Amino acid sequence: MVKKGLDSWTLNSSQRLLACVLLFLASICLYSPAFKYEFTKFDDYQLIGEHPQLYADGSFGERLQQIVYRDYPREEPLIIRDITWLIDSELFGFNRPFGYHYSNVILHAMALVLGFLLVLRLSNAATALATSVILLVLAVHVEPVVWIMGRKDVLSATLCLASILSFLRMQDTPSKQATVTLYIASLLLACSAYLSKINSVILPGLIFLASLVHEPQFERTALRSKAMLRLVLKHLTLVAPFLLAAVAAFVWYRSAVADFGLLDRGLKYSPEQFRTVWLLVNPLVLLEYVKLVLVPWDLEAYYTSPSIYSNFSAFDKVVSALVIFMTLVWLTVLWQFNRAASLLFLGFLVALLPYANWVHLGFWYANRYVYFASFFLVASIACVVVQIFSRPQSSWLKWGSAVVLCVVFTHNVIYRTQYIDVWKNGETLWEHEVSLPNPSINDFNNLAANYIGRAEESRDESERMAWLAKAEKANTRAFELELQPHEMAWLPVAHYNRGLVYAYSNAPLDTQLREFLVAATTSRGFHRAERSTGVVYYQMAQEAESLEAQHKLLGESIFWFAQSFSSQGNTMSVRSEKRALSEQIKRDFPNFGDPQF
After folding, report:
1. Is pLDDT of 163 > 90?
2. d(CA 583, CA 580)
3. Under 8 Å CB-to-CB from 220, ≥6 apart: which residues?
4. Could you give the C-alpha distances from 467 to 66, 243, 474, 507, in angstroms and in order?
5. HSE of 268 in the Cβ direction (CA atoms, 13 Å)?
6. 12-67 residue pLDDT tens
């Protein structure tokens, strides 16, 4: 009697449907606490709440037209993501965070189901189920799912997975009409992914890898044979239109963000400094991503940047070299052991390529960045473990694999349960961040900003002053930090927050101005500080006793308002604000003349 291993398990259509439904519902249940969460006011409110012209004012058609044609980017042009936010606003209300959280959770549940179906096509039922159960509880998924700004990650991942699945179904379809339909659907889904998050341009590489794994001849074809070359060329040809669309999307994206001055914002350093830091940073970050997925600890929302001033130790250099070496060895071993697992792991590396700091050193790493890539990493590990249990391997290897999976699962369940509560609102988030070892100045800046936001919303004077006192305490701790050279760029934000505390406490105008001026003059393009400086000068002009002093102060105010408008770009909202301010100046200062912005 032949013993059947785990890799021989199959699911019939009703079992597949049941597994999909259970996975979908389990995901929603696990993330249902997010339905009650607020805006964290860490980019999310600024990109939604401060843009009613896109999500609230006017008809649906007018707002849709502005999103597609007129008013991008705010931080970057992501048209499909913004359209989903518009739909959330229309269905659930503009300033209600529930709708945005609800859609994130639903999209994540859809991504998990699509991930299950993808692994099922590329491997076997046992691997697909193991992958889905682990993905269901990953702690590193909390941030992109429960933070409204994570929409681009879960949306683009969902569209990418749907595109890959459509492509694979196209390969299995005997009907020519269905083949064409599925191919076009896959291409349209890919283009939608590119417009949801530009890092999705790596999708053609993933489709190519998935289609190779899915190819019936692939597993038994020799690596250096002509048959393998023909397989590769065949699938490259099919993927070519996806690659052309990705290139077109990337060129358009760079053109759009260049128009708004969002390029070339990285650290400035010599080519030699760049090479030194780049070669060390990325292997270390790859190791960090593996840790974040498998055994996360002290997850943080704010991402630090690598610095040319960092002193990499000999130990760092050795670890970096070992990571590169072990990655190559692991790929080679996987190829010999299970080709599907090797290409899934290669898919993990491909999905992280956009975060490799090819042009300039950006962030070290972020939890959101590994969201899509984690599907491939977990699937490759599950594939190996299932293969081990399906073969007559030694018992210690089987028990060792089982222990590793149990540790990964249990650790993620425990930490995820704790970490999801961190994202209830801005205060819980940044109170968590400052409680971590070695908090950065920006952690305190964001905590202070959230306290200030609470003060703005409060109608009770004593409550408002209590929030401002908390904000000033956070500001004081920010100023007390011993800053590294690369952290000095965040010092102006601390001055700006202190200026806001003074403004809401009705401190003298010259006291407010001192802080805002420091923030505006030491950080080019800090439009909030520039605008606040303009506001204080405007108030001082209104209180000036002589016409000469009034006009001088008003001239300073107009200068800083103009700086603020320039920093924000020529969007429709900025043009509207310019017109409103010009009319106000003409009313308040009729002798000044026509202000020039």
Report:
1. yes
2. 5
3. none
4. 37, 52, 11, 16
5. 4
6. 999 999 999 999 999 999 999 999 999 998 888 888 988 888 898 888 998 898 88
